[in-house]
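New to this. Please check both lines:
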Amino acid sequence: MEPTADPVAAVRRARRGPRRRYLAVLGGLIVLATAAFAVNVLLGDYTYTVPDFFRILFGEQLPVATYLLMESKLPRAVLGILVGLCFGIGGAVFQTTLRNPLASPDVVGVTWGASTAAVVAVITFGLRGTAVSLAAIGGAVAVALLIRSVGGNVGSHRIVLVGVAMTAALASFIEYLLSRASIWDVQVALQWLAGSLHASDWPTVRAVALSAAILLPLLAVLSRSLRVTQLGDDLATGLGARRFAPDGMLLIAVLLVAVAVAASGPIAFVAFMAGPTARALNGGRPTLLGAGLVGVVLVLSADFVGHYLIGDITVPVGVLTGACGAPFMLWLLARGTSSRSSS
C-alpha cells in the first residue's frame, strides 16, 4: 500500500504555483513600467543618455538639458506613474468589490462627477488651477455617495445601473454647460476633459504622491478581505470579514480616482482596462498591485505615443486610452457572454 500523501504538503504545492505566477506577473509589469518610464524621460524631441540623466538628477547643471528634464519630462513621467497607479488600483477595487468587470469609475459615474464639478467651476464660477482640482475631488466624492445611497448594498447590480444612469445624466449636463459658455471657457473645459499630463509640475506631483502615500496603506489593510468579499456579503461576514470593509475600500478607491482626475483630468478607461488585464495575466485572480502597474504602463505608453508618434500634432492621453477602451469593452462583453454560454 502506498503511503498517504501529506495534506499540508499538498496544500503548499497547490499554493506555490499561483504565487509563482503572481510574482512573475508583477516582475514583468515592473519591467514594462520601468521601460515606459525610461522611454518617456530619455527619448522624444530632446534625448538623453543614461549617464547624462543621472548626472542631472544628482545636481549637475547642463545648459537647456537640465531645465527640460527637471521641469518638463521628469515631472510629467512621475505624474504619469502616480496617476496610472491611482486609476488602476481604484478601478480594480471597484470591479472586485462590486463583483462586476464593467463597474469601473468611468462607467458608474464617479469620473463624470469629478468632470461635472470641474466644468461647473470653470464655466459658472470662472475658477482655474487648484480650485478646479479641488472641485473635481468634491464632485467625485459627492456623486459616489449619492450612487451608494440610491444603489443599495455593495455588490448589488443596482449600484451599477444607478451609476450608468448618473453617467448619462452628468454627460448631458456637461454638454448643456458647454453649449452656453464662452469660447474661452469651452476651450479650457475641453482641454481639461480630454485628460492629459501637459500641466504636470512638481507641486502637483507632491500632492498626488502624498495622497497616495496616505490612501494606499489604508487600502492595503482593508484589502486583506478582498477575496472573501467576492463570495457575497453574508458569507463574507460569516468567514470573519469586516462588514464595513467593502464600503471602506470603495471610499478609498473613490478618493484615489478623484485625486488622479484632479491632477490629470479624466483619462478615459484606464481604470476600466487595468483590472481585467491584470486579472487575466494572473490566471483569473484579482491583483490590486498588478492593476496599478497596468495603469502605469497604459498612461505612460499613451502619453509617449500621443506626444511624439502621431504626426505633428499632440494627442491627449485620454483620447488614446478612450480609443482603446471601446474595443476593450466589447471584448470584455463578448468574453463574458461566451463564458456563460459554455458553463
Remarks:
- The chain has one domain: 21-298.
